[in-house]
Write a structure and sequence with these properties.
single chain; TIM Barrel; 8-stranded mixed sheet
């Protein structure tokens, strides 16, 4: 007889928080349209579910990393235009033309192939020119850009409707970033000015929160949509969309001198009530949190992680808290910010969110 049981580890996704954070992005960049960046499974929040929840929010684009993500959104029935944030493979381009997705161009070779495919299909494909203003991972360099642009404009199968670049240090280097904005504006003017392009875009979350975006008419919020500010001073305006949770599976009292977890990196110095929790690095809870002062939140208290994080389980010192098997545990969320978890793991919030593995059940709801 089939049976069901509650998940051992799950992520609760608050869709109302997502929409609130989108409103903050609009307030921070007035007059700019929005490309909601949903790559990497909407930063671990569930690609199709997030795309559906934002489909009626008057977005200019969804930003995706690759054709596979674009296909999943389109096949889910979402009609919002799809923008490919990175370079594409030669074998992917026929589908891009067929489906009318918007690629960014970094080379003449890819532009020529897109043009040839579009002409053969009786189409004219909308594309964006990508320019490298300091990121170093794609786009046309400024040297020779005038000539390259003339060649692109002569291709019969493409329509250059937008121009964009990317900020590598908006959350770290304000002087460089201000120079990048100025240089990008000069490039736009060099190629015909604001009237030449339907879409002009540069800012990620940090860029739109911290800098003047008057030279652009499109911004690309990513991390902030999910409730995490990449720069200090804006976190209070955002609401975390994801809460990672698990349950206590076992509570025992260990004697003094007893090791906890692999390597006996933690040994009790007194009789200790130890709670085992059903989550581990196999779920995306970082092993690097071992021995770094990480905590979990359960029964209204923060409790310290002890011993090494294992693949499927972690242990905490329950102290005097009366824990029982089945108690709900927050690993991050309203009570423990994901940025705190990331800092203790020696990484960034982007990696924590996108690293939550498929065996963690995503539960989407609209409001708390």
């Amino acid at each position: 007889m089939p049976t069901t049981s509650p998940p051992r580890a799950w992520a609760e996704i608050d869709l109302s928080a997502l929409r609130q954070n989108l409103a903050v992005a609009r307030q921070a960049a007035p007059g700019c349209a929005i490309m909601a960046v949903v790559k990497a499974g909407a930063y671990g929040h569930g690609l199709e579910e997030i795309a559906r929840s934002l489909a009626d929010e008057d977005l200019a684009f969804f930003g995706v990393a690759n054709v596979g993500e674009a296909r999943r959104i389109a096949d889910a029935g979402v009609a919002t235009p799809l923008y490919l944030l990175g370079a594409t493979w030669e074998a992917e381009r026929a589908e891009i033309v067929e489906r009318g997705w918007v690629p960014c161009l970094s080379t003449l070779d890819e532009a020529r192939q897109f043009s040839d495919l579009a002409v053969a299909a009786g189409k004219r494909l909308a594309v964006h020119l990508s320019v490298d203003t300091g990121m170093g991972r794609g786009g046309f360099l400024r040297e020779g850009l005038d000539e390259n642009f003339r060649r692109l404009e002569a291709l019969p199968g493409i329509e250059i409707e937008g121009i964009g670049s990317h900020l590598p240090s908006a959350d770290e280097d304000a002087d460089f970033t201000r120079g990048q904005f100025a240089g990008f504006g000069e490039i736009v003017d060099q190629l015909g000015g604001r009237g030449r392009f339907r879409w002009i875009h540069l800012s990620n979350s940090a860029g739109l929160l911290e800098y003047d975006n008057h030279a652009c008419n499109l911004v690309r919020p990513g991390l902030m949509l999910y409730g995490v500010s990449p720069v200090p001073g804006h976190q209070q305006r955002l609401r975390a969309a994801m809460s990672l949770k698990s349950r206590v599976t076992l509570v025992r009292t260990l004697p003094a001198g007893h090791g906890v977890s692999y390597g006996r990196a933690f040994v009790t110095t007194r009789p200790t009530r130890v709670a085992t929790i059903g989550i581990g690095y196999g779920d995306g809870y970082p092993r690097h949190l071992s021995g770094q002062g990480a905590e979990v939140f359960v029964r209204g208290r923060r409790l310290p992680l002890i011993g090494r994080v294992t693949m499927d389980q972690i242990m905490v010192d329950a102290g005097e808290v009366e824990l029982r098997a089945g108690d709900e545990v927050e690993l991050f969320g309203p009570s423990i910010p994901v940025a705190e978890v990331a800092a203790k793991a020696g990484t960034i919030a982007w990696e924590i969110l996108t690293g939550i593995t498929p065996r963690v059940v995503r539960i989407h709801h609209d409001g708390r």
